Structures are given as structure tokens and as C-alpha cells.
Amino acid sequence: MDWSLFGFKAVGELFNIHPMFVHFPVAFLPGAFLLFALGIALKKPGLNLAGRACLYMAAAGALAAVATGLLAEGSFPHNEIIHHMMQTHETLGWLVLALAAALSAWSFFQAEHRPKAAWFFLALLGLANLAAMQGADLGARMVYLEGAAVKPAVSVITGGAAAETGEKAQIAAPAGHEGHRHSH
Predict the structure, then answer these.
(1) What is the pLDDT of residue 161?
(2) Which one, 21, 96, 114, 171, has least CB within 10 Å?
(3) Exposed, middle or buried by CB within 10 Å (0-12, 13-18, 19+), for 129?
(4) Domains in the chain and their CATH numbers?
């Protein structure tokens, strides 16, 4: 393990911190859905309680993702394609936040840990998951396909050689990895 890589050095290099928060609702919403679905179907209050905890964390994560996303909006240069995608991504973020907050409130006021109208609750939680996954897909497309907020990768990886010549450059392996090859 290379200890020199530790220290959160990327934070100073990023255009914004939005990517550090987007994964919380993406992870906790499906967990909440699964736990509530099992709790409702199997009539297990403990699973509903665990689902509630995941839902609260998803709502908090959605709030952080929306807040950092709003701050990120003007933090990097982008074209019309990215801007158009960003607007839809933002709308989905607000939808996820609204659904997660409403479902959190709905579940909070249930003493028996089973939400009233449980199957409707689960359907709305499924919709929140769908919106979160679609938002994640749009975010991934903006970054990985359109290059939103990504410093030029090729020149960084190759030290500028491939960008200058238009050819694939040979990349030197770090010390101790001379025989290590990656498939392309």
C-alpha cells in the first residue's frame, strides 16, 4: 500500500465537491426499498425499522447532493449538451429529495414501524429509486461520456505525448510494477 496517496488531495483539485455526496442516496434508497419490502411482506417490524434508518440517511444524502449540486452548477465550463443534461439531472435531484423527505415524514409518524398504506408507500419509494437511478445515469453520462468537470485525461495519463502526436503513447510503469500489464 502506498501511504503517500492518502490525505484527500483530490478535494483541492476538483471543480466542486458534488461527486463526494451523490452516492449516499444512490446507495441508501435501494437499501431502504429492500428492507421495507421485506419488512412489509414478511410482517417483520425490525426490517421496517432498518428500512426507516436507511430512508433517513437517503434523505440526508439527497439534501447534501442537491445542495452541493446547486453549488456545482456554475463551477466548471460546459457546453449546451451538458447544460441540457444538467437541468434534467437537477430536476431529478429535487424529485428524489422531495420523495425521500415526504416518505421519511410518512414513516416517522408510524409507531409500529410499518407505514400506513404500506404498499403505496413502497410504490412511492420505488419511484424515488427510479428517479435516483435515472439521475445517477445522467450524472455518469455527463461526466464519463461528455467530460463534464473532468480535467483532460489523456494528457494527464500520457504526459501530453498522445495528445501532441495523436498516437497511443507508451506509459511507464511505476517502480516495482515493470511486469504489470493492463488490458486495454
Answers:
(1) 54
(2) 171
(3) buried
(4) 12-151 (1.20.120), 153-184 (no CATH)
Radius of gyration of the chain (CA): 21
pTM above 0.70, yes or no: yes
C-alpha cell at 73: 452548477
Interval 23-46: pLDDT, tens: 999 999 999 999 999 999 999 999
Number of H helices and E strands in the chain, helices first, is 6, 0
The H or E element containing residue 130 is helix 118-140
Q: Can you say whether the dihedral through the CA atoms of 172, 176, 179, 184 is positive or negative?
A: negative
User: How many angstroms separate the CA atoms of 121 and 143, rounded?
Assistant: 33
Spatial distance between the Cα atoms of 120 and 176, rounded to a whole number of angstroms: 57
What pLDDT sits at residue 166? 46
CA 92, CA 101: separation in Å to the nearest integer? 14
pLDDT (mean) for 119-127:
97
Q: Distance of alpha carbon 117 from its chain centroid, rounded?
A: 29
Instruction: Find out whether 131 and 92 touch, Cβ atoms under 8 Å.
Output: yes
Other beta carbons within 10 angstroms of residue 177's beta carbon come to 9
